[in-house]
Structures are given as C-alpha cells and as structure tokens.
Specification:
The structure holds two protein chains of two kinds. Chain A is mainly alpha-helical. Chain A has a two-stranded antiparallel ribbon. In chain A, helix 1 crosses helix 2 and helix 1 crosses helix 4. Chain A is elongated, with a radius of gyration of 16 Å. The two termini of chain A are 24 Å apart. By secondary structure, chain B is α+β, with helices and mostly antiparallel strands. Chain B contains 27 helices and 23 strands. The chains are: A mainly alpha, B alpha+beta. The interface between A and B is medium-sized, with 18 and 26 residues.
C-alpha cells in the first residue's frame, strides 16, 4: 500500500527544500491546485508521524532563515529514506496512472 | 502576514487554543505557536466576513481535525501496546490493580492446597452466616395478606411475670369490654372433619372471635367478615369463612360459594366469605388454615361446662390491633390496669395474672417470643465462627507470607511503595473472600433446602423462601468484605514493613517471627469446641442406643394406636361416646388378628402427658406429701393391651363407670412413696382431674414401673377410668397377634365403619412412637455431628496453619539439626509432638466443659453417664488423629528438609 495522500504531499513539499509547517501547508495547497487544505492538527500530527518514521528530520541549523520569522518555527527536511519513499511512491503513482489510462483506453473500465 | 484584531488575536483563536488541549501534550508543547499560526492563516483564507455556513464548516472542520488527531493517536498507541503486550491506556491505578489481580490469581493458583483450604473454610463460614440470614430474612418478612402489620400485636398472657401465651376466655371477654387501646382477637386451632362425598376429611380449622380478620386488616375477597353478633351465643351462628385454597381445591371453586353449606364436624355451616388468596392464616410458617369459624361454635368452648366461663383454664391465644395513636407501651399500661382490677375481683383465679403486647412478627407467630433472642444469640455465635475461620485463614496467609518474605523485601528494596504492597496482599485476600462468598451462597442455599427437609418444627405447606435475593447477596458481600479485612489486614501490615535489611542479608529466618499466641490459642480452642460438640453427639447416640435395652414397662411391639377426637363426630357426651365405643367393639374387636384392644387417652411414650398432683386421702392438707403424677384415662383391657403386668389387685372393668366408686391404678413407685412400707392396695388417694374439686379414689391395682409420656422423664403414674372422667380426645390401641403392619388397613376401616363421619384416622405403631420419643436425642446427636464436624474441620485448618507457619520459620533450624545428626523420624516426631502440645490445653478445657454440659443435659441422656469413658475415648481419639493428620503435611515437609540447601541458601 502506498503512502497516505497528505504524507505524500508533505514529502513533495519538502522536496522543494527545507521549510516550516505553515510554508509546507501553502506549498501543499499549490501542488494540489487548492484541493488539499491541511488542517493544523493533521499537519503537525503528520509531521510528527513522518519524523517518527524517519522520513523527515528537523533542521537544527538556523542559518539561511528569512529575517523576522518566528524563532520558534521548526524547519524540516527530507531524509534519504524520505526521498526514497517519495520516489517509490511517485513511481507507483505513475504505474497506477498508466494502468488506469490503458484500461480506460481499451474500454475494460467503463 | 497575519491580519489581527485590535487585541492582537485572530477571531476564534481562543476557541482553538481551548480545543488544542485535546491533543497529546507532546504535540501541543512542540508546535503550539505554529498550530495557532496555521489556524489563523486558514481562518484568514475565509476572508474578513465569511458566510455563516462557511464559518460553521470551518469550525466543524477544525474541531473534527483536532479530535481526529487525538483519537488516531490513541488508536496508534493502543495498537503499539497490543503488539508489545502492554496496555497503557488504562488509568494508572486501574492498571496497577489489574496487575495485582493477575499476580494474585497466579500466586493463588500456584499454591493450590492453600487456596482450596482457605476458600472452602471461608465459604463454610460465610455460608452458615448467609444461611442464618436467609432464615431470619424470611421469617421477618411481613405475613402475607396482613395490612398495617406494624399496628398488629401479639398479646401474651403472663403468670407471675412469666409469659405463657395463653389466656382464659373470661379474661379475654372482660378486657375486650374495657377501653384498652387495642382491639383484641382471640383464636384457637383445632382440626376438624369436613364431610365430603368420600366421608370425613381432615381440615385445619381456626376458631376465632369475630374481630379476628379485622384485627389483622384482612378483608374477605368475596362475601363478608364475621359480625360481632355471630360470636356471642353458643352454637347459634354456624357460619364459616373459607380459605382461597379450600374454595378452589375442595369446594370446586364455584362462584356461588357464598351462601352455600358445608358440613363440619357433623354440623352444617353457611359459607359467608372467602379469604384473600395470599392470606393463609397469621402463622405463615405453619400449614395454611382451611377455614375460620366463630369461637362460640366450638362445643368444647361454648358447650355444657364449656371453657368460655372457666377462669382457671387458659387456652386462648390473643392478637390485637393498636388503636389510632396508641403505642405498645400505652397498651401494656392499660392491660396492667385491667388485670390488676380483675385480680381484685377474682382473687382465687387471677392472682399474678397479666398480659403483655409484643410486635407481631412471623417468627414470633412461630412459637415463643424468646425465639428472637435465640436467633440473635445464634447470629452472634455464627459471627464468632466466621471470625475464627478468618483467624485460621489469617494464620495460613501468615504462614505463606513468611515464605514470601524475601520477595516482599526485594520489592520494598526496589522501591515498591508500602501502599502498593498492602494493596497486593489485600487484593489476594479479596480474591479468596469473593470466591469463598460465591461458594458460600451456594452452600447456604443447599443448606437451607436440607434444613427445611429435616427441621421438625416446620410443617409442610409453610412458606420459607430461601432463594437468594438482593438483600441476601448484599449481606453476603458485606461479609466477604469484612472477611477480606479480617484476613488481609494483619499480614498486609506485618509484611509490608519487614526488617528490610535483615531479611535480605541474613537469609536464615531463625528467631524470626513466632506464631502469634492468639493463633495458638485459637487453634487450641477450636479443638476444645469440637471435643464438646462431638462428645454431646456420641453421648446422645449412646442414649438413643440404650432405649432398645431399657425396661419400658410396656410392650411396644405389635401395638397400633389411632388418635380420635370425638368432638369431630358431633357427639357431645359420654352416653354418645359409649354408643360409639360399643360399635367400635363390634367392628374392631371382631377383626381377625386382634389379640386385644382398648380405649384410653394415651399410652406410654406418646409425648402427650397430662399431670396432676395426688395426696393421701387421710392427709389432704399436707402439702409436703403431695406428689406430682402423670395420669392416664383408661378403660377395660388397657393393661393387657399395652402389655403392662398388674402386680397386685385388678385392672379396670366395664363396671367402673360414672355411677360406681372412683377407682385408681397406681405404679408401685408411687405406692411406696405415699405409704412407705405399707400395702397401697385398698388405700385412698385424693386427686383432681381437669376439675377444681379433688375427689377420693380407692386404689384397686398396682402395676410395676411404666415409661412416662416422654423418654426423658420418669414420673409416678396413676390410671383412672375414662368413664369416670370423660375426655373427647382418645386413643384406640390394638395389640396384634402377629404382624401389626398387616392390621393397619383393617383397623382403619373398622374405625370408619363404627363412625363414618370421622376423618380417616392416622394409625401409628407404638414402636414409631418410641422412636419419636428419642427424637430430641437424635436431634442433639445430629446437630452435634454437623457442628462437631464443622468445628473439627476448623480446628484441623487452624492446627495446620499454625504448624505450617512454625515449620516454615524453623526451616534453617531444622536444617542445622539434621546436619548435626537429627534423623528424619526425629524431626517428624518433634513437629507432630508440637502439634499435639498445641491441642492439649484445648482438649483439657473442652473436656471439662463437655462433662459440665453433659451433667446439664443429664436428663436427656436416658441413664448414660455424662462422663461415659467410651464416648470420651472415641472422641479424643478422633481429635488426636485429626490434629496429627492436619500437621502431617508440614511435618513431612520439615523432615524432608535438605540440610545443605537449608543452610546454603534457604
């Protein structure tokens, strides 16, 4: 079974570069054409879960953060495992999409 | 980037912050600021003035989000916990309790012997208490059908301050006519004969004053109550109220019952009412009544020379209903005033006479008011039994805990709190008590069922309901909790503070805990109690055994008797009775297989017993020479039939009737007492039989020793002709030539042929009467056996607990001894010797008490010595054996100690 949808989107958002929760949320909204709006508890809960699953990690290094941003914001980045999970999931989605398209083309699925 | 309200807060932020409390604290503490920011951002996207549906959807969404996260989190942890075999989701205390329970069950199932013995003894203790409670609970229930029972009282007659229940009818009438604040009702029970298609049928009749049902608050379900005028003139108002059961079963249950006629004792009665179905009489522990009729309808009460005018004869039982506003004390004060006045009015009969009202309870209705005291006494006794059992189990728990001392020390050393330890030990005790209680309820139920089948005071048809109900289960549970405290608290306190260091460092256990003196004394005392009970049991059994070898003074073998109440025939006087007896002579006397037959008002050992006192005719005023004797009204052929040889003189003849000189036959013992060294034959005695005036009787015969009406008593006896002192309740006795049992049917038919209106008489063999006369001894033996067995079991458990504890504590000492050359046999002997020494004080004191008790009940022992060596020998032998058996298990364990192991590590 694949990743949960919101997990996939969080990983995808972090693939653009390390950032904090609110930014992740904005990126997810962009990536999903506004269809997936993560509520706060879901967002941070998922971040905890992903961190526990070692797919993302907290960035301790505070250099390179924009001026004036809340000091307490936690930054996250993809771990190698997270990157791999994202790749595997992407590939799986491609496959599923391809199979689904073929099925529709040949009329096996109505 | 955030647009804020003037107070710097986003609308709804406060709500969100509250909502966040639902989240696990880690998540909240790590991300709270960001969560709020994201919330604000999401909220902002809705715009400044969102539509109401939009807003609602937002808040619903945000709430659902937080709650979902919360429960998802819980599910995850639970799943994770399930994988690792733990359950952290329970509250901490509950979790620990669960742990303790599981641990307790494990540790209890590991030591099976301990658990089984502890549970069984607790079950016994709780069982007997629950059984007792069941009984009392039932007997204290209100009598069915009685309304406002709290105002109903039972009014007992008193004589010289002693309660004797019965009243004289004139007293009743006089008191009823005064203004005492009680409405009185008198009653008397008497079997009657109801004429049906099949002849006479025995019915239970209660003769009552007209106020009876009203006093009890019973309203007839059909028809009407008695009228006051129906209980005034003798025999003028033959009316009856029948019970619902009687109406349904014997009178066909027709709806036109009211106004119909039934025939009772040969007299037609009009049925005026039917009692409510639930009311079967005010004595629910006895068989239900069939019908109620006015007292004045009873010839014995209201006939010629009836009891209604007799101030001396006391036979009426009285109930009352307190009038509005009156208390029992008011009533008693008023009764006292009236009786004082009656005493002045009738000094010769009413001296020291009185009456006292008591609350009306079915248990008192059973018999005596004192039975309540007996019940409370029994309650206390059984409570003590439970306490002793708890003591025993405590002893066993202590013995067991001693072996767990190291475990407990280790727990304490590793930081287990005392509270936690106490709880663990209490949980174990609770488990024992609860399982014990559950079993106890079952025991109690079985026990009460068994009791109901053997207990003689409860006739059939009584309504003792012993099924467990809420009250009973509540009582049992309370007792289980009490037992838990009793059993668990002492070990828990003692062992939750062992001398921590010593117990860990010095593994010896030598000179450690000694068995508490209380436990030694308790175990010893139980042995003593068992001794007393078992001695009483064997003494009674031996007493029953002696009956067969005694000289009864008559021959019970092949003797049949039938009790007949001539009052039930409707015949009133001697003349009618003699007609009846003439017919009997034709039918019974001519039966094949009848050797002889006779009529009397009793035979030896029939448990009836009538007493009077006699004096020498030449010294009538000499009180010192008066002798209390038992009297029997007999007719011709009496001595031949019962098998009592006449030593001198003659027996009765048909000519000894009301017109001839009064005559008497006496026992030789009485003759020797009245006229020492002289011949009694031909002398004259003065005695009165059921009259105030005494008459002079001349002694015409002397017989040898004859058994009294009860086996436990031995009275001098006089025999008087029935025709000179007539009595309606008689016995017909028949001596069979060969097989008495074959004669039962023909005998019955012969009586019925002589008088068809009689209810079919019950025929008993004299031998069964003899057996019944030792019923008291049998009961003592049976009770002694049961309670003795219980005490024996308890003392065995007690001894086991003490010895096992001692052995456990002395393991190292025994190891040292064995290392130094003590043999296994030696160790075994020492331990068993200790056990015996433990029991000896109990046996000695119990023995002394047993002899004392034996002397106290000497009269019932029928000549067996209270110090009977055989009884004592047997019982002491059994007890010593049981003590040895109880200590053999721990003794074996002690002798099996491996000295090396005991010394090395213990």
């Amino acid at each position: 079974m694949g990743l949960k949808q919101h997990w996939f989107h969080i990983l995808l958002a972090l693939a653009e570069g390390a950032t904090h929760g609110a930014e992740i949320r904005r990126r997810v909204v962009d990536h999903s054409d506004g269809t997936l709006k993560l509520y706060p508890a879901m967002l941070y809960g998922s971040l905890e879960d992903l961190q526990a699953g070692d797919l993302i990690a907290e960035v301790e290094d505070r250099s390179g953060r924009p001026e004036g941003e809340n000091e307490r914001y936690r930054y996250y980045r993809l771990t190698p495992a997270g990157r791999k999970a994202l790749a595997v999931e992407t590939k799986r989605l491609e496959q599923v999409t391809r199979i689904a398209r073929e099925a529709m083309a040949t009329g096996r699925v109505r | 980037m955030n647009s804020r309200t003037p107070d710097g807060k986003q609308p709804g932020e406060r709500y969100f912050r509250v909502l966040l409390r639902c989240l696990p604290s880690e998540l909240r503490s790590r991300h709270e600021a960001e969560l709020v920011d994201v919330f604000a951002e999401t909220r902002n996207e809705l715009g400044r003035r969102p539509g109401i549906t939009c807003l609602l959807r937002f808040y619903a969404g945000i709430t659902a989000d937080v709650l979902r996260r919360r429960f998802e989190r819980k599910k995850q942890t639970r799943r994770a916990a399930a994988r690792s075999g733990l359950r952290i989701a329970l509250p901490r205390w509950l979790f620990e309790l669960r742990q303790d329970t599981v641990y307790g069950i494990r540790s209890l199932t590991r030591s099976k012997t301990f658990t089984v013995i502890a549970v069984l003894s607790l079950a016994l203790g709780i069982g007997v208490n629950t059984g007792m409670f069941t009984f009392v609970n039932t007997t204290l229930k209100p009598v069915p059908g009685v309304n406002h029972a709290e105002r109903v009282v039972e009014v007992l007659g008193t004589s010289q301050g002693r309660e004797m229940e019965v009243w004289a009818y004139p007293d009743f009438k006089d008191v009823r006519e005064t203004t005492v604040p009680i409405e009185l009702a008198g009653w008397k029970m008497r079997d009657g004969s109801l004429t049906t298609g099949q002849g006479g049928e025995r019915v239970r009749v209660m003769y009552v004053s007209a106020s009876y049902l009203h006093v009890l608050g019973v309203v007839p379900a059909r028809g009407r109550d008695f009228l006051a005028s129906e209980d005034v003139s003798p025999g003028q108002h033959p009316v009856a109220i029948v019970s619902h059961a009687m109406w349904q079963n014997r009178l066909d249950g027709n709806s036109d019952i009211i106004g119909s006629t039934i025939t009772l004792n040969q007299t037609p009665y009009t049925v005026i009412g039917v009692a409510p179905e639930e009311f079967t009489g005010h004595r629910p522990l006895q068989a239900g009544m069939d019908l109620w009729v006015p007292l004045m309808q009873d010839r014995w009460v209201a006939g010629k020379n009836g009891m209604a005018d007799n101030r001396d004869s006391r036979w009426l039982r009285v109930l009352g209903r307190l009038r509005e506003g009156a208390t029992i004390d008011d009533a008693n004060a008023a009764l006292q005033t009236v009786f004082t006045r009656l005493e002045q009015q009738y000094p010769e009969s009413n001296e020291d006479r009185g009456a006292r009202a008591h609350p009306f309870k079915s248990i008192q209705a059973m018999g005596r008011a004192q039975s309540m005291m007996a019940v409370y006494g029994l309650f206390v006794l059984l409570g003590v039994v439970l306490l002793i059992i708890c003591g025993n189990v405590t002893g066993m728990v202590l013995a067991r805990s001693a072996t767990r001392e190291r475990e407990i020390s280790l727990r304490l050393a590793l930081g287990s709190g005392r509270g936690r330890l106490v709880r663990l030990l209490m949980v174990e005790a609770l488990l024992l008590a609860l399982v014990g209680a559950a079993l106890g309820v079952v025991f109690a139920y079985w026990g009460s069922l068994a009791l109901m089948t053997i207990a003689p005071p409860l006739p059939d048809g009584s309504f003792l309901d012993v099924r467990p109900n809420g009250a009973i289960l509540g009582y049992t549970l309370t007792m289980a909790l009490a037992a838990t405290l009793a059993v668990g608290l002492i070990p828990a306190i003692r062992f939750s503070r062992p001398e921590l260091v010593s117990s860990l460092k010095d593994d010896t256990g030598v000179g450690g805990r000694r068995v508490g003196r209380i436990h030694r004394i308790a175990a010893s005392a139980q042995t003593g109690v068992a001794l007393i009970l078992l001695v009483l049991c064997t003494l009674s059994l031996r007493a029953v055994g002696t009956m067969g070898r005694r000289d009864l003074g008559f021959e019970p073998h092949n003797l049949l008797v039938a009790r007949i109440d001539l009052g039930q025939t409707g015949d009133e006087a001697v003349e009618d009775a003699s007609v009846f007896l003439n017919r009997m002579n034709e039918s019974v006397g001519s039966l094949p297989g009848v050797d002889s037959w006779t009529v009397a008002d009793g035979i030896p050992l029939d448990l009836v017993g009538n007493f009077t006192s006699v004096s020498r005719a030449d010294r009538p005023d000499e009180t010192a020479g008066r002798v209390t004797v038992e009297f029997t009204l007999a007719t011709e052929g009496f001595f031949e039939t019962v098998g009592t040889p006449i030593l001198r003189g003659r027996g009765f003849q048909i000519t000894d009737d009301a017109t001839s000189e009064p005559v008497v036959v006496i026992t030789q013992g009485l003759g020797e007492r009245m006229w020492p060294g002289e011949e009694a034959l031909g002398k004259h005695l003065r005695l009165s039989i059921r009259t105030r005036e005494s008459r002079e009787y001349s002694v015409i015969g002397v017989v040898g020793h004859v058994s009294s009406s009860r086996a436990t008593e031995d009275w001098p006896q006089v025999f008087v002709p029935l025709w000179q002192t007539f009595h309606q309740r008689i016995m017909v006795a028949v001596r069979a030539t060969t097989d008495a049992l074959a004669l039962v049917r023909p005998f019955q038919s012969a009586i019925m042929a002589a008088e068809p209106s009689l209810p079919i008489p019950t025929i008993t063999t004299s031998e069964s009467l003899v057996t019944r006369s030792t019923e008291g001894q049998r009961m003592t033996a049976q009770m002694g056996a049961w309670f003795g067995l219980l005490a024996l079991l308890l003392s065995a458990i007690g001894v086991y607990g003490v010895v096992a504890f001692a052995v456990t504590n002395r393991t190292r000492e025994i190891g040292v001894r064995m290392a130094l050359g003590a043999t296994r046999e030696g160790v075994l002997r020492t331990v068993l010797g200790d056990a015996l020494r433990l029991a000896v004080p109990g046996l000695v004191i119990g023995g002394i008490l047993a002899v004392g008790t034996g002397f106290a009940i000497r009269s019932t022992l029928l000549g067996v010595s209270p110090m009977d060596p055989i009884s004592f020998g047997i019982v002491i032998g059994i007890l010593v054996l049981v003590v040895l058996l109880a200590s053999i298990v721990p003794a074996k364990r002690a002798s099996g100690t491996n000295p090396m192991e005991a010394l090395r590590c213990e």
